[in-house]
Protein 1
Amino acid sequence: MSTEQSWRPVRIGDLIRESRIKGSNGSSAKKLTIRLYGRGIVASSDRGGSEATNYFRRKAGQFAYSKLDCLNGAFGIVPEHLDGYETTLDLPAFDFLGKVDPDWFLKMVSRPAFYGRFKFAAIGSRKANRVPTVEFLATRLSIPPLAEQRAIAEVLGAVDNAIAKTEASIEAITQTLNKTVSWVLENAKSVAVPTVSFGEVIESTKYGTSAKCDDNPSGFPVLRIPNVLSHGVDQGHLKYADLPPDEAKKFELRDGDLLAVRTNGNPEYVGRMALIKDLPRGTLYASYLIRIRVDQKKVLPEFVWLSSETFPLRDSLTAAATTSAGNFNINSDGLKSARLPLPSMDVQKEVVAAAEILRLRRSREQEYLEQLRDTSTALAQELLSGRLRLPESMIGRHRDQPERAA
């Protein structure tokens, strides 16, 4: 069964019809907006204003798009809990006419290959050029029979559900990971767990190299601020420095080092730390970073890292940052003055061991999530273009379903 035999070209205007039900026109009207890149329709904080007389009521199940952000993939279907909310005509809404499956239609138009076509039809001088409704409705699509649309939507929806469940699992693991030290951190507000100045457990601090870096991999790899993430070190997009070996040795990183951001425009990023582990030998770090080596007889570097984004260490790192020329900075003295909860070494080991198990589980879930996303992208490209056809056994289950018209 070829695409030419069963898929047919149609105008979008033959599949949906614009809805213009006048809204309440009051300042208390509930407003809607559409997030970019296909992330759906959400309630807006806007409660009225000068355009309050130009709002139109939207119904659950209607399709909507943003004229201003169509080129970014701002499409969605009004969910049940937002029935009765309102938008301006910059977010037109449409009833389905029963000739197309809404889920299939949303997936089709949300593809960059589709909405990229509006680049030359958009008008206006704004960066996000406006795509008029008449242009949108005049656009042609190639669509399969309704039963095949539903089968495609079912397959892609199953992958989307798996992605959502995996994302929820990662979030649950992250919350549990945070709780592994929360009792220590909460007790740090009392006498149950003592807090000490960070300087009491620091052996040394050292600023990074200010040597010029480039893309030539013959030099030593150098970590910069973008490589220091709260979950660890990102070794992508490395730069390299050509240094004499003796000079490079001063800035070499080793397992157990903590690398902290020394300067940033956001005070919450100042003092952000990454734990160094399993980096290639000879990896260096740049001058906007500080290397911290702790006394491992007093504190585990892994425990410091776990504590670095929460009370009291995070708060005191932010408080120690100073402002200069629009940037926030922290120096060695500021680091040493920060406050750190310091339970017994046995407790630290228990917390670190539990966190390591959770981090490993989260890492595996994140790898699975990336695989699911790649699968979703590949399946959408093939199924929504007609290059890959579903078997009749999957399509047949959808033939006797009633049409879904608004």
Protein 2
Amino acid sequence: MGEGIPVEIATLITGLADPARATRIDAAERLCRAGEAALPATVALVNACGDDEAEVRDWSVAALEELGTPPAGTLDDLEQLLHGGQPLVAYWAATLLGRSGQAAASAVDALTACLTAATDPAVAHRAAWALGKIGPAAAAAVAPLRDAAAGADPRLARLATEALAAIGG
């Protein structure tokens, strides 16, 4: 585990990947109840959103809902999780990148790919939202956002329009 991560949190991060269902559920629940102290577990919690066990996914989502901006050192890992094929994992990776704002500017291409190629509409919606949160640094996404704003999905069109306003495109 990384330097500076409290031992209890590091143990729970390990527990999220345990083969035993009960261990994974317990780890996810305890990380949820840890609040902001669970920030070092951000990437592990996003990964756990792809768990086969619904309770692990539910507790992980609940934990992520309570966390604020992810640690800066997690942005590359979150960007990689956009492409894993698990819609809930990609949704939460996009959410956390969006919460990072301009600091996540390196993820613009990956978020744009989610916007244009996501098979799950919620992932495309979240990618558009995240691009807007990144703001002017997401200028490379203007053309795909314009396409999305003109598309048939009303929610995606609204989010893309809002993102374009935030980017200045």
Protein 3
Amino acid sequence: MRCYSQGPLWLGLMWLVLLTQGCVGGGGTRETAVDGTRGRVVMAALSEVGTRYKYGAQSPGKALDCSALTQHAYSAAGVEIPRVSTDQREAARPVRLAKVRPGDLVFFRIRPGLHHVGLMVDKTRFVHASTSQKRVRLSNIKSDYWQRHLIGAGTYLN
């Protein structure tokens, strides 16, 4: 397995994720830290934060598009998934949005014929290759924009 580094931003994000895993939730219950295959998927995706976005690109650490990011993250954990976001959605086991877990995929329809995919990091944040920001980044799934375009979730994990 390759180790990725994006400098101080990368280290800060990793510490943030590690510190927030297992934090007390809104209902006073303790969430379980992400480990095993789910943890490897999430860490592989987060290791690409800051990587350049380019449509059709599939070079981790250099340039990725949204579905190449999710395919890379799953592959790093030993799970093979389709390359294209619409195929990823079709082949994934559906997950109710209220039940998404770290490592699950979230799917969006930006406009007719334009789809997007991201990977959940926790209950509200997902990592994705952003066309507008031209890089892999974290976003909040509860934002108005993402809620308006969200069409479902799915997983390849247990």
